[in-house]
Amino acid sequence: MNSDLLVLMQDVNKSFPGVQALSQCHFDLKAGEVHALVGENGAGKSTLMKILSGVYVKDSGHIYVKGGEVHIHNPRMAQELGIAMIHQELNLMPHLSVAQNIFIGREPRGALPFLVDEKRMNQEAQALLDSLHLAIDPRTRVRDLTVARQQMVEIAKALSYHSQVLIMDEPTASLTKAEIEELFSMIRRLREQGVGIVYISHRMEELKQISDRITVMRDGMYIDTLDTAACTIDQIISLMVGRTIYESKPEIPQDSQREVALEVRNLNRGRVLRDVNFKLYKGEILGFAGLVGAGRTEVARAIVGADKVDSMELFVKGQRVSVHTPSDAVRHGIGYLSEDRKRYGLVTGMTVSANVAMASMRDFLQAWFVLDDAKTARVAQEYVEKLTIRTPSVNQRVKHLSGGNQQKVVIAKWLTADTDVLIFDEPTRGIDVGAKSEIYKLLNELAHAGKAIIMISSELPEILRMSHRIVVMCEGRITGELSAAEADQESIMRLATRRDEMVIH
After folding, report:
1. Is the pLDDT of residue 37 over 90?
2. Distance of CA 363 to the CA centre of its chain
């Protein structure tokens, strides 16, 4: 083993019920490098890194850390070896403070060993957050932070272990451009200090900015390792999916029908949302753009009755309706695919078919309220095939699927409910480039079929690619509206940072 290798994984195998997740996989990490790990959802990236971080135990194969073979049976053993992982799904306790989450299980003690020294813990957490240039009060409850802020706390927690190996699984998925630059600066400083960083991401443009080498996986197998400077994004994508995908090709659907499907008037909620007004037309994809904290998700949650509001007039197909709960929204034909799918969109302990039927359960009931299992399985199978959900069967529990395939199950749930208004909050977050094209095609098909779609996305190329119109928000207000023909990244960012007054085109 080379002296500069921090980690070497050879011939690693792992299976789950009905799934061979990894087969003869290889991976290595050098000191002072950023090694990107890429592949479609279900390729095995996260599984391989969860084995390295002790979340899973390999079935067979060899793992070497700094030249010595190790057998990692749990996360604590990985931490003791200097390995920390930032998971794609947040691994924080929302009812605890930021400081308590960072130092959970290793809190500083006071004069009496059974008492936690809260003051010292907050001071140490503050010092860590300051070093990372994070303006977060360590006493704040994690549940009161945005998803982006929670992600940064997760990063701080991992770095607090002074790890020599840091695994980042989709770390920028919920971050703004400025926050991504802060993260990249942090990564570069760690690289200069000799830390080895495994960087898992579906954002191809990030790989060229931050990585030194790129390893590609496909279908649970190792494909190739490339020097970042010597390869192109097209080459990487071709290795990932086995085919060429042209992500830059515009896919704006045909002109929308000018029948109003949904109208929101006078939506206010404290300082979070102020004077929000807009219309959504039948057959239209209306993009919502803005920086993290602009209020886009809050608009969606208000529409579906997930959050209480100070005022709102809601019209569906011209008729005023009252929506106080998500069930009210479904009854009026409004479906919401949440940004936090694992928390709000799925019951991971249940099967694929049960989750697909969940929003329209009444349609699957027989006499005496008995569930029609055959019909549920048949409909679920149709969407498994249509959305290319990678699962051994519709009876597989959702918790055993990859993150991207879990997202597809949520989409299938709302398509099964046949709602007329669909709100997609970050629909391709954590989805690989191949699956993104499938989702884009699906959204277009839905628009062509007359569905009215709101698409909230933090990825400007996605917003520009898919939207008829684009509503831009900043600090709880709509600061502009642009047609697809006149919108570009510069004009959106100008409105998102309030450099212009409210402009409607």
Report:
1. yes
2. 30
